[in-house]
Amino acid sequence: MTTEQGRQYLVFGATGAQGGAVARTLAERGHPVRGFARRDTGSVPPGVSLVTGDLADPAAVREAFTGVTHAAVTLPLVYDAQTVAGYARNIADAARQAGVQLLVFNTNTCIPDEATPYPAYETRRATETILRDSGVPLIVLRPPVYLENLFNPGVGGALANQNVLAYPLPADRRVAWLSHGDLAAAMVAALDRPDLVGRSVQFGGGEVVTGPELAEIFSGVLGRRISYLPLEVDAFQEGLAFALGGPAATGVAGIYRWVGQEAGRDLFDLDPATLPKALNVGPRPIAEWVAAQPWQQFAQENQTEPS
């Protein structure tokens, strides 16, 4: 079913952090939203109908696109080139057959101009090409790195218990940190901007800061001195593997390996005016995001032993 305006939205990754934020934002604005995910994890946003299936299954993807006019695509943390290309072709073919009016693709990270040895960039670059070549009206959004990456037991534990903000970026790297809420607002805005079809928009949040400057913001909000610690990418990858598995952790770590090199030092140093100018979205201040997170849950005194 579609609304009186004739729109039906499809959101890939609707049970995940990024896709879930997009689906939630659309549903809260009263739009009919169908989510697509590999399985029902119980985290479907209210008002979103979920279709489960595998992106590698062309029939499942075609079924998900039935009656869809607008789609938001965020891929899972999979970085095998052949597998991801298959995902992209299935989405492109199904969207074209369904006559989709507009598709917005979130690359999950900025894409360097030059080719890199890291699949986290190159699989998303290849997906862009496949989707664009399909002829489906396409807008590509290339965000940098998410503030939500800081809210996890590893980073949050060091912050709460050692007053250290540890992250796998050199201290001097300038980063336009973005929240998932800002990403969702950008994707929803893009779904209503057919004038941007054919464009790739590389954007970040409203503030561009180095690691120590980010720690200063945390210090001001939390009322105690926070120090920035550039985490070794190998250590970051090892910790991430426990949560995501080895292949996904290796893929994600590649993002930071490139940015840690001289060739990638400016990748996340983005004009803070881009998002408001391109999509009329005002990014959330970093301090406001920090203040909204329950960091105390990572404090040792609030942690209990597993039963």
From TrEMBL:
Transmembrane segments: none annotated. The keyword Ribonucleoprotein does not apply. Keywords: NADP. Residues 10-289 form the NmrA-like domain. InterPro entries: NAD(P)-bd_dom_sf (IPR036291), NmrA-like (IPR008030), NmrA-like_oxidored (IPR051164). It comes from the Bacteria. Pfam families: NmrA. Belongs to the NmrA-type oxidoreductase family. PANTHER family: NITROGEN METABOLITE REPRESSION PROTEIN NMRA FAMILY MEMBER (PTHR42748), NMRA LIKE REDOX SENSOR 1-RELATED (PTHR42748:SF7). This is NmrA family NAD(P)-binding protein. It comes from Micromonospora humidisoli.
